[in-house]
């Protein structure tokens, strides 16, 4: 029997899905949780083979619950079952340690199949999730480069994009010309570009300038 813990804050969802899963000859729902805190506690208490985890729940969301479980129990097999497909949910859930990602629009039999596949060591992802991951791999996010800039460096980058010279920037910000040059050098290094023009192009490309 595949022992399952089901965490979802909608009681009717838990009742319906649990009833179907329990009717399967190889699946047993051993516990249900109505929020993230209960999910974490029950996961460590029962050590289920599979955890079905909703994302939006009271007290603790599914992403935090997943992270807390996998931090102490890396072997835990967690399947996200949610209504959300936005990047702010998908990537953090997978990074937290979720193995599979399903939508609540999936049929109960599809969730049962995902449970069996995940139990066997495979990862089941909604086609939309797979597409997002492939897109991210093809076009890696470079936002981290400019996120390393200090507030002053961001201010100077915007003035550079406005066509100001180092001298004009120094006068605008009431700082020494030498200080501006130091900041510009730091900006080029952090953005991994070789000159001011490339830095300005980066700023426009990443919509830092409006």
TrEMBL record:
Assigned keywords, A-Z: DNA-binding, Phosphoprotein, Transcription, Transcription regulation
Domain Response regulatory residues, every copy: 3-119
Modified residues annotated as 4-aspartylphosphate in this record: 54
InterPro entries (alphabetical): CheY-like_superfamily, NreC/VraR/RcsB-like_REC, Sig_transdc_resp-reg_C-effctor, Sig_transdc_resp-reg_receiver, Tscrpt_reg_LuxR_C, WalR-like
UniProt cross-references to SUPFAM superfamilies, sorted A to Z: C-terminal effector domain of the bipartite response regulators, CheY-like
Locations listed in the record: Cytoplasm
SMART domains: HTH_LUXR, REC
Superkingdom, natural source: Bacteria
Name of the protein described by the UniProt record: Response regulator transcription factor
């Amino acid at each position: 029997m595949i022992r399952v813990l089901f965490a979802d804050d909608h009681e009717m969802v838990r009742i319906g899905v649990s009833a179907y899963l329990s009717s399967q000859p190889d699946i047993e729902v051993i516990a249900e949780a109505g929020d993230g805190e209960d999910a974490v506690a029950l996961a460590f208490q029962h050590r289920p083979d599979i955890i079905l985890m909703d994302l939006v729940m009271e007290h603790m969301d599914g992403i935090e619950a997943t992270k807390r479980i996998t931090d102490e129990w890396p072997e835990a097999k967690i399947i996200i079952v949610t209504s959300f497909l936005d990047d702010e949910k998908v990537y953090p859930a997978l990074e937290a340690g979720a193995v599979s990602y399903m939508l609540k629009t999936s049929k109960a039999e599809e969730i049962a199949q995902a449970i069996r596949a995940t139990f066997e060591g495979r990862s089941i992802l909604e086609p939309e999730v797979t597409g997002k991951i492939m897109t991210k791999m093809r076009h890696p996010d470079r936002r981290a480069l400019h996120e390393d800039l200090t507030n002053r460096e961001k201010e100077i980058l915007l003035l550079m994009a406005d066509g100001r010279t180092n001298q004009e920037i120094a006068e605008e910000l009431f700082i020494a010309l030498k200080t501006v040059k130091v900041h510009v050098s730091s900006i080029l290094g952090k953005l991994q570009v070789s000159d001011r023009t490339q830095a300005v192009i980066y700023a426009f490309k990443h919509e830092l300038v409006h």
